[in-house]
Amino acid sequence: MNTSHGGPAGEQEHIPVLLGEVVAALSPKDGGTYVDGTFGAGGYTVALLEAAQCTVWAIDRDPEAEKRSKAVAARYPQRLQFVQGRFGDMADILIERGVTQVDGVALDIGVSSMQINDRARGFSFLRDGPLDMRMEKTGRSAADIVNTWSERELADAIFLYGEERHSRRVARAIVAARVERPFSHTLHLADVIRAEVRRSGDGIDPATRTFQALRIVVNDELGELERGLKAAERILKPGGLLAVVSFHSLEDRIVKTFLKARSGASSRPSRHTPASLGAVPVTATFTEISRRPVGPSDLEVNTNPRARSARLRVAQRTSAPALASVAGGLA
Ligand SMILES: C[S@@+](CC[C@H](N)C(=O)[O-])C[C@H]1O[C@@H](n2cnc3c(N)ncnc32)[C@H](O)[C@@H]1O
């Protein structure tokens, strides 16, 4: 779970997680083209640009990231292109700009320290701010959801996306509290949750899980991750590399399931299955570089606690046509 909650805006810069591992996984080459689908503060982008005379297409859905990209682009003339958008749309974004194939794609899922630390963005349950959480700064906010969803819908989301055992109690408390006063600020919501759920033995703030659930819903983060994986499948050239860093089990499960299915590991029919049963031959679109995800070293966790739960999965594109464009399904 990406639970870092540092100081006010600007106090703590974003420290890239598993940076060396991601760059080593993509092993950038001179003349190559790479996608950093989650630009953030540009940590991965800069490392890729430093590692080879390559070009990087950086994408971030947050308009603030575009401002940061300008300084980086000035340092690497002609080699960095930034597009504000979603990585789920990366294939279309690139194809529209004349790029039909890339050598590598990096995704660093979740929120940046800048987003969490800026109270005005509403991601933090430690400092008061508008209950917002929209990475794109448009669309439905977290306040819209807690003020309008039914108790049942809230409980289901908090259980599914926050993995909160006390989801029903939290949802009941939210619905009771909003009758008195609709939610507009983060600390109001955090206080209502804390009054309902006691701090557990591991010291994690009881608001953590519900805030995570709301963030995931507001930004459709899991849907975006699925779309991003399929888009990477479309845009990577044969031999191209995909590196995905995730921060909690819900995300890692999606990446793991996708790569397992696309490498043929989950859907390859048994040789005992009669052809008449309709077993469709699967052509793998990815080869998993390793079945087990890579985690941070002790040194990295000591210097950057946010890295604690990070998991990197790496896969190489085969020459088989993308399934996403053929069948449209995840598996
Ligand atoms: C963990 S930070 C990335 C940090 C970056 N690797 C670095 O080293 O600075 C995640 C970033 O991804 C962006 N993001 C999250 N979901 C996205 C999506 N679906 N499409 C594009 N950007 C997204 C967020 O706005 C945030 O800036």
Any descriptors?
single chain, 331 residues, alpha/beta, Rossmann fold, DNA polymerase, domain 1, 2 domains, seven-stranded mixed beta sheet, 14 helices, 7 strands, disordered N terminus, disordered C terminus, binds S-adenosylmethionine
User: What is the H/E order?
Assistant: HEHEHEHEHHHHHHHEHEHEH
| CATH topology value of the largest domain | Rossmann fold
The name of the CATH architecture of the largest domain is 3-Layer(aba) Sandwich
Strand numbers in spatial order across the main sheet: 3-2-1-4-5-7-6
Task: Chart the SSEs and their pairings.
Elements: H1 19-26, E1 33-36, H2 43-51, E2 55-60, H3 63-75, E3 80-84, H4 90-96, E4 102-108, H5 113-117, H6 142-148, H7 151-162, H8 167-180, H9 186-196, H10 207-218, H11 221-235, E5 236-246, H12 249-262, E6 286-288, H13 298-303, E7 311-317, H14 323-326
Parallel strand pairs: 1-2, 1-4, 2-3, 4-5
Antiparallel strand pairs: 5-7, 6-7
Helix pairs in contact: 1-2, 4-11, 7-8, 7-10, 8-9, 11-12
The structure holds S-adenosylmethionine.
In short:
With about 325 residues, this protein is α/β, with parallel strands linked by helices.
Task: Please characterize this protein's 3D structure.
It is built from 14 helices and seven strands. The chain is an alpha/beta fold and 331 residues long. The protein has two domains: 19-113 and 221-326, Rossmann fold (3-Layer(aba) Sandwich); 137-217, DNA polymerase, domain 1. Strands 3-2-1-4-5-7-6 form a seven-stranded mixed beta sheet, sandwiched between helices. β2 (55-60), α3 and β3 form a beta-alpha-beta unit. The two termini are 25 Å apart. 46% of the residues are buried. Mean pLDDT is 91; it is low at 1-11, 273-281 and 326-331. The site of S-adenosylmethionine (SAM) has 23 residues, from α2 and β2.
